[in-house]
Amino acid sequence: MVLHRGVADALRQAIALGALPVGAPLPTEAELAAEHGVSRGTVRHALAILAAEGLISSRQGARHLVRGTERTQSLAELRSFAQWARRQGRQPSGEVISMARRPATVREAGLLQLDPGGEVLAVLRLRGLDGEPAMLERTSYAGWIADAVERIDPRADSVTDRLHHELGAVFAHAEHLIDAVAAGVRDAALLGVRRSSPLLRARRVSATPAGRPVECSDDRYRIGVVTFDIHTTSGVPVLARRAL
Amino acid sequence: MVLHRGVADALRQAIALGALPVGAPLPTEAELAAEHGVSRGTVRHALAILAAEGLISSRQGARHLVRGTERTQSLAELRSFAQWARRQGRQPSGEVISMARRPATVREAGLLQLDPGGEVLAVLRLRGLDGEPAMLERTSYAGWIADAVERIDPRADSVTDRLHHELGAVFAHAEHLIDAVAAGVRDAALLGVRRSSPLLRARRVSATPAGRPVECSDDRYRIGVVTFDIHTTSGVPVLARRAL
DNA sequence: GAGTGGTCTAGACCACTAC
DNA sequence: TAGTGGTCTAGACCACTCG
């Protein structure tokens, strides 16, 4: 019973199926309203969602235009490696190299809003794509969620999926810092690259809907594995992680 | 005469001045409507803008909350190095290393939607921050805008500014691909780093409001100069380039 | 000048939060 | 249970595009 969602879904599908090819104009707002039996306001809400997903653009006086075919959900997109890989039709793999509880570092305590000396669960995972090492993930979970994380089968390829199923909508906010670094000795050995070769780094802090930090992470990608794709249309940025 | 803009500006200022500190609840929508003499719909439009800027967040049933103080305008933010640097209180500099018209490569023709063999204006600029080499920018402008670019004083530190003043709102859409690369011989020499050391790369294509591509660029940053900051709140990504 | 999207209003009901 | 944001409607007028 969320009408604008229904309209958005119908349009998204028409675009995905090619009924509305890239560059084509959409029906007018009035037509869409009549077609779906809703008011124009609801149609505009649906169109705003598609615009925020990078699928359409608009200019006053001219019809809405199809600008892309791929929907991107930037939060899920950036957070779960396994979900992303599968949506690309690639085979994700994951191996837990180490996992231990320890006191938070000063930096971690700040990021996760923990008391000094609070506990974190530190996990180092090597992730692969179609059998090749692709990324090294160093994640620190806040102590209050550590039990739930430890209960997850370490062979599960998506910790995010499991947490979501067990605890509901845990993540609502995230911040990512993207830059480049030189591979250290350990990075190089695990990823199978030469020492000091370039890696793409994404550091992340995720929080609950109420703003409570859950985990922070330092992910390092071999070059040539992914790029981050920022598509900005009429001031609305749309984010995606892209395979190469 | 754009009421929602007025409401958004007032709230933005209240947040910037600290009258509404981070974490504080906003007045209710009904209160804001009464206060500004507008309808609730207009207030909601204003709040949606602030949410898209990463300044506030909301949950059904609870009041809107202030979540940040810095507005980010992701398109301008990513496109103009000089504008960005000045907003950070840093001193940008720029030097044109080479500038020449030549036929577009196949890749450029595709990105800029030019006819095969169409002309581009290729410019290589070395950009600095507070006197230090920071970034190498290889830009190719579509032939139809080359005249305007050539008329710009090569010492102007912001080509984007000048184009904007001369031609109006030239840019409305952009796509950025962010990854890491190893510095080539030429990159290393110009940026003052060792060969094959890591660089943060951002490749860009910008287009007019009507979707016509204007320029494409390959920017390479020394590591430690900037990070890209992606702040995602309730599904809305907000982008910024951050100095280190 | 006709068509179309952008803005705004006034009122209604529902879903969720917080007390 | 009262308060508050989320959704939806019906109608109006304006600003811009396009033939």
From TrEMBL, chains A, B:
Keywords: DNA-binding, Transcription, Transcription regulation. GO terms for molecular function: DNA binding; DNA-binding transcription factor activity. It comes from the Bacteria. InterPro entries: Bact_HTH_transcr_reg, Chorismate_lyase_/UTRA_dom_sf, Tscrpt_reg_HTH_GntR, UTRA, WH-like_DNA-bd_sf, WH_DNA-bd_sf. Residues 1-69 form the HTH gntR-type domain. GO terms for biological process: negative regulation of DNA-templated transcription. CDD domains: WHTH_GntR (cd07377). SUPFAM superfamilies: Chorismate lyase-like, Winged helix' DNA-binding domain. This is GntR family transcriptional regulator. It comes from Longispora fulva.
